[in-house]
Amino acid sequence: MDPMDAIRATFFEECAELLESLEGGLLALQSGTQTPDTVDAVFRAVHSIKGGAGAFNLSTLVAYAHEFETTLDALRSGRLTASAEVVGTLLRASDVLGDLVNSACLGEDVDVPDTSELKAVAGSAEATPGKEDDSDFNPVMLNFGLDPIPDDDIDLAPTPIEIETVPVSTSTAAPHSAVGKRIWRVTFEPLPELLVSGNEPLFLFRALEVLGRMSVEALDSDLASLSDMDVSVPRLRWSIRLEPTATDLTETEIESVFEFADDICVLTISQIKDEDENAPSPQAEAVPGQVSPAVVEPPKMTIKETADTAPPPAAPKPDVSVQPTPIGTAAPQAQTSAPATIRVDLNRVDRLVNLVGELVISQSMLAQGMTRAGLDQHSEAVATLDELQQLTRDMQDSVMSIRAQPVKSLFQRMTRIVREAGQATGKDVRLVTEGEGTEIDKTVVERLADPLTHMIRNSIDHGLEAPDERNAAGKSPGGVVRLSARQQSDRVVIEVSDDGRGINRAKVLERAIARGLVPEGKTLDTTEIDRLLFLPGFSTAQTVSALSGRGVGMDVVQRAIRDLNGTIAISSVEGKGTSISISLPLTLAILDGMIVRSSRQRMVIPLSAIVETQTYAAARIETLGPNQSVVRLHERFVPIVDLAGSMGFARQPTDDLVEDDTALLFVQPDESGTFALRVDAIEAQRQVVIKGLGENFGHIPCVSAATILGDGQVALIVDPGGIAEMAGLNRQNPTLQTPELAVQ
Amino acid sequence: MTQIEATVAVPEEAGPKPDASDVTGQDRIELLTFRCGGRGFAVNIMDVREIRSWSEPTPLPHAPPFMKGMVNLRGSVLPVMDLAQRLGQPPTQDDPRNVIIVIQNGNRVHGLLVDAVSDIVHPTDDQLQDVPRVNAEDGAGMADRLFVVDDKMIQILSTSRILPEVSRPFSEAIA
């Protein structure tokens, strides 16, 4: 890949993060849960997008972001209050900005969208319009090389070192004891990577300027002579004096400005007290005398002059005794800095996950080998193996937690879906989210976006009533869609519920009969009717709207969830609302399963689907027809399905004999009711490593994935929902053919 | 920075070029020849990842008969098909000399069950012939070129065409 493309890709990746924090901030404003930093964070997000877009010449994006920024500036300076109306406009603007980023990413050419709404909001702010920070800032930038004080002892060669603290002068006190207005001094030394990654110090300074009045000095003592200059190595350093607008500005806030340049620059932030303010000047005169004469050149140096006169990079640095004293305290950065994070390619993490999986398998092979060797249970080897088992389990957990991600980003994406769907249908909808901090595997989070979008659109389009209908029903005109996530033992439950009209079961049944899905005159109980919604090609919408009802229905959602090893359930109270809940495994890498044998094949049944087990001999089995039998589970009869038979495996003649070990596993895959799986034997209950079948196999009916057992054999992980489908248990009409097998 | 390096490194695991194009255009290609159902075949050696001995595969449900199942290939799950059956011949007889040729096509890795591996040959371009048009059904279109070794015809198979098509995951239907 072209290095420029890589940088571009990084920019768009960052944009996604920025848009997320933008939306998050605006939503906080909307719900009134904002902190003093919220508006700043929102502003910074838009600002960073604008800055990056400028670097890539994305003029449309820059233009729009600029308008957006202007409006936000009014908000930040307090000229505009964050009323519901204003925040609404801003949220819409953030959607537009997101769209612009997308089309910029795809390289599409678009016109600058209508900014009149933003302008109107900005205009409504009293007095002065938002200032143009470009014009405002330039003079400061021209303050090039005023007093070239090497005011810290940073090494000449730029090396990626930890945030370096400025030497503490003895006269100063701890940062928090400082009274009155605090002044900050920030020194900034870019490393070569800063330029490579497309960062521009100017943008950083602009972002910093947002925090208060500042003056910038460029320190050019490191400049090489023009002939020796390597343009890819930044030689300038900057010292910034910042007088914050907010007196309680913290170091972390300043640091966050440099967030994206975190590990590619050397940054020191320290506080100076007001009275020290004038100190730099005398110091400036004192220091050069002891350094190299070249630095004492007149302050109005141009780059050219500097190139002629500046000492070569190897020039002696001011000795430690000439430490600049103006700078007050070195703040304890180490303690205050946010937890360090690194960006890692997902492939690397996956490789690690796979390796740990291998480790688990080898370890269980080892355990089996040791048992076969007949080692004493109390021998040292067995004890060590136990220890190893504990370690691998811990390691597995830690590796899995790397892939875990809070569902917050997913939920935030849904707010936009709700806004748009609400607009399209003319309904007033509010999205309430709960449990955003719930963590789940990254892949699950990503693959949930489509099904969730679909479910939410369904809720708004079909579930919620129009405002007048709601009024008539005695509800508030605005509908509520609730999106919640919570962890339940080793699964995550995500629920989409609305306070709409609920499922009109009579209509559902009528439609199912009209479509030939249910024979006429058949009576179904409510859960059976609700289950009809998951049948392929079922849609209750009278008119096909742009939103939903395109014939792609809940069945596709169910498939997608099942592909994630999840289950889906629906419940509804007529007139009160509908709730659909999805239960998902925490990880797609490990599964708790029961290893069973059927027709000489070993297979794994997910433990989460198993309700109960019985031995075949003890079960109360009744025969209905030649190949149909049912078994009594508590007070209900449930169908029996032979595992190998439904998988299409030929049974050996001898297999037909019911062995002593033959057992029935009562399984309940999502909404399709409980049934009994007949297996030849239950072998063990164990954690297995999931091996996706993915690209090599495509979708295989009745199978969700495979695993490798302790002896190295591959075993299939059974999808109980697929078995129910294959056996035709979901169909209310027995005359219908089983679906075409998706062979090949 | 990690990000950038990684993205640069990721695309294409330096895999062999996919397809028939390898067969033509080069002065000398290297082919792995093998026997299957009594006939001689060859694949471009650049498409071969490894050759491994036969082990009993785990059958796949509702799969076409030529899909033997899957075996454990050092921790990943490898689909194995009986090449003879794939080409419309009777199934390969159980024999300890049977081997699985592991071939790679793009991101897909597949095992081919064959009778035995014969040789590695370097035919020159003029030794290769185009496949004459025959109105045949059996394995039609699986071979790219033909050539003769020891008076016996060898068919050069196209790896992309041998692999069965896979059905796409359902999640794609939602979008």
UniProtKB/TrEMBL annotation, chain A:
<dbReference type="InterPro" id="IPR004358">
    <property type="entry name" value="Sig_transdc_His_kin-like_C"/>
</dbReference>
<dbReference type="GO" id="GO:0005524">
    <property type="term" value="F:ATP binding"/>
</dbReference>
<dbReference type="InterPro" id="IPR008207">
    <property type="entry name" value="Sig_transdc_His_kin_Hpt_dom"/>
</dbReference>
<keyword id="KW-0808">Transferase</keyword>
<dbReference type="GO" id="GO:0005737">
    <property type="term" value="C:cytoplasm"/>
</dbReference>
<dbReference type="InterPro" id="IPR003594">
    <property type="entry name" value="HATPase_dom"/>
</dbReference>
<dbReference type="InterPro" id="IPR036061">
    <property type="entry name" value="CheW-like_dom_sf"/>
</dbReference>
<keyword id="KW-0597">Phosphoprotein</keyword>
<dbReference type="Pfam" id="PF01584">
    <property type="entry name" value="CheW"/>
</dbReference>
<protein>
    <recommendedName>
        <fullName>Chemotaxis protein CheA</fullName>
        <ecNumber>2.7.13.3</ecNumber>
    </recommendedName>
</protein>
<dbReference type="InterPro" id="IPR036641">
    <property type="entry name" value="HPT_dom_sf"/>
</dbReference>
<dbReference type="Pfam" id="PF01627">
    <property type="entry name" value="Hpt"/>
</dbReference>
<feature type="modified residue" description="Phosphohistidine">
    <location>
        <position position="47"/>
    </location>
</feature>
<dbReference type="GO" id="GO:0006935">
    <property type="term" value="P:chemotaxis"/>
</dbReference>
<dbReference type="InterPro" id="IPR002545">
    <property type="entry name" value="CheW-lke_dom"/>
</dbReference>
<dbReference type="InterPro" id="IPR005467">
    <property type="entry name" value="His_kinase_dom"/>
</dbReference>
<keyword id="KW-0067">ATP-binding</keyword>
<dbReference type="Pfam" id="PF02895">
    <property type="entry name" value="H-kinase_dim"/>
</dbReference>
<keyword id="KW-0547">Nucleotide-binding</keyword>
<feature type="region of interest" description="Disordered">
    <location>
        <begin position="305"/>
        <end position="336"/>
    </location>
</feature>
<feature type="domain" description="CheW-like">
    <location>
        <begin position="590"/>
        <end position="729"/>
    </location>
</feature>
<keyword id="KW-0418">Kinase</keyword>
UniProtKB/TrEMBL annotation, chain B:
<protein>
    <submittedName>
        <fullName>Purine-binding chemotaxis protein CheW</fullName>
    </submittedName>
</protein>
<dbReference type="GO" id="GO:0005829">
    <property type="term" value="C:cytosol"/>
</dbReference>
<feature type="compositionally biased region" description="Basic and acidic residues">
    <location>
        <begin position="14"/>
        <end position="24"/>
    </location>
</feature>
<feature type="region of interest" description="Disordered">
    <location>
        <begin position="1"/>
        <end position="24"/>
    </location>
</feature>
<dbReference type="InterPro" id="IPR036061">
    <property type="entry name" value="CheW-like_dom_sf"/>
</dbReference>
<dbReference type="Pfam" id="PF01584">
    <property type="entry name" value="CheW"/>
</dbReference>
<dbReference type="GO" id="GO:0006935">
    <property type="term" value="P:chemotaxis"/>
</dbReference>
<dbReference type="GO" id="GO:0007165">
    <property type="term" value="P:signal transduction"/>
</dbReference>
<dbReference type="InterPro" id="IPR002545">
    <property type="entry name" value="CheW-lke_dom"/>
</dbReference>
<dbReference type="InterPro" id="IPR039315">
    <property type="entry name" value="CheW"/>
</dbReference>
<feature type="domain" description="CheW-like">
    <location>
        <begin position="28"/>
        <end position="168"/>
    </location>
</feature>
